Amino acid sequence: MKSVRAVLDYLVAGEVSYIFGIPAGSVNAFFDELYDTPSITPIVTKHEGAASYMAAAYAKYSDSLGVCIGSSGPGGTNLVTGAANAMREHLPVLFLTGAVPVDTVGLNASQELHADPLYHSVTKYSQRVDRAEDLLPEIHKAVEIALTGVPGPVHIAMPIDVQLTDILEPAIPTFPQRTPLLPTDEVVLETAKTLASSESGFLFVGQGIRGAVDDVLELAETLNWPIVTSPQAKGFIPDHHPLKRGIFGFAGHEEASDLINHGKEETVLVLGSSLGETATNNWNPNITKNRTLIQVDYDATVFNRKYPVDHPLHGDIDVTVSSLITALNGLGVKRAPFPAMDSAVPDVTEEFNSQNVLWSLQEKLPADTRFTIDIGEFMAYVVHYMGVKSEDSFDINVHFGAMGSGIGSAIGAKLADPERPTVSITGDGCFFMHGMELLTAKEYDIPVLFIVMNNSRLGMVHHGHTLQYKRAHERFGQEEVNISQMAASLGVPNARIESMEDLNDENLSAILNAEGPAVLEVSLVDDNVPPMGDRVKFLSSFGK
């Protein structure tokens, strides 16, 4: 059998359902084997970069391995940004790239590229395989690395001749399973004693609490401590929970800022946040000033990066928090009931602006809608103003901040969780990078609503320069393009909003009831300053 056939058999054994990418000469042998692999559907995208975002989102929301593939040369380089994104998000994605035949290396072969060094800094493991008998063992090794410990992306480069070489039929290795990480009982008990003896404190939670929200809420209620979230963790703590104090960091809330900057709490418990720039408002020292810092994370490298940690707990959030609750109960600290409170309703005015449009649209969508948020000025409005009506309802990639990633992420998320309504909120700048994946969604009948905030400019750049330099270059803008007409040319249901009056059921019915993808274009130039002032102040601090 061909060595590449063994790779497909291995992925089938691991219950891989989708492979995202684009066929080309150096990976055609892989795609040819997919004819005989009905359990795996190739999602052929319009750009490899979008494929990488789809694979990452699929890995996140399916809690399984994502797989994407690109050709040697440009296909491999197009995937690198997605690998860096997956690395930052700790997502297990197998990146496969083709490579030129082994005996043509160094001869200026078509699309020749020594790809594996490019992936070293953006993956947990990267290797080119030059012998057919080593291909399956290296794939298995890479997948094991991707799924175990701190999850993350891996990369294997497969020369085309290696893929096509016959090998003896191998035994298919057992697909790896991740073993949960849990601190020792002694560390848990010591930390629980510190928590129990603290007069006051608060929880600072990041996106690492995904899958452990119920435990986190129980811990907060047991301690009777307020909860502050990072921007990336928006969507986990419901608005109606009485202990919620909002978001700290990029586009955050005044109540959360007051608690951190002026509160008297003596202990801060950090759960699932690496305490990076956007989560901490540019590493604000007040988060831990005169406070005891307890930090729980499965990535031990986050401890003591910027803030000295008094009690580091190296473990998965769910099992560690559950163990802390048990230990607290043993110390006599019991959970008190917290009835839900009414969610605050913002004052939506008749002004046609981003805040009013986004809130009004959310009110017309199902309460359990998941939003994948792209990069742009609209992101600040989403973080600051949109409500949290259901768990795990926002995918906000402020960490790596790749424009256009929210488009592919919506497609991958929908494939992973097909029953959940999924909406991508993107901008015209992002759409011009990866908007043709709208056609991918149509071809595979993937029902995602793409809301495109079209202001005919790079809005975050425009506002950032205006605030920081008191001027913005005219070339940050561009000629207005009717994106709804672009969608119409692809045969995709669409609507264009040019005023608050346009947000009516008649205009929206076709797109809200579409069986496949749909586009809602919001043609809006909003000259209000987005809630991103602290970011601008940080950038302005350099050079002074």
UniProtKB/TrEMBL annotation:
Residues 1-113 form the Thiamine pyrophosphate enzyme N-terminal TPP-binding domain. Signal peptide: none annotated. Residues 374-522 form the Thiamine pyrophosphate enzyme TPP-binding domain. InterPro entries: DHS-like_NAD/FAD-binding_dom, THDP-binding, Thiamin_PyroP_enz_cen_dom, Thiamin_PyroP_enz_TPP-bd_dom, TPP-bd_CS, TPP_enz, TPP_enzyme_TPP-bd. Its cofactor is thiamine diphosphate. It holds the Pfam family TPP_enzyme_N. SUPFAM superfamilies: DHS-like NAD/FAD-binding domain, Thiamin diphosphate-binding fold (THDP-binding). Residues 190-324 form the Thiamine pyrophosphate enzyme central domain. GO terms for molecular function: acetolactate synthase activity; flavin adenine dinucleotide binding; magnesium ion binding; thiamine pyrophosphate binding. One of its GO terms (cellular component) is acetolactate synthase complex. One of its GO terms (biological process) is L-valine biosynthetic process. Keywords: Thiamine pyrophosphate. Belongs to the TPP enzyme family. This is Thiamine pyrophosphate-binding protein.
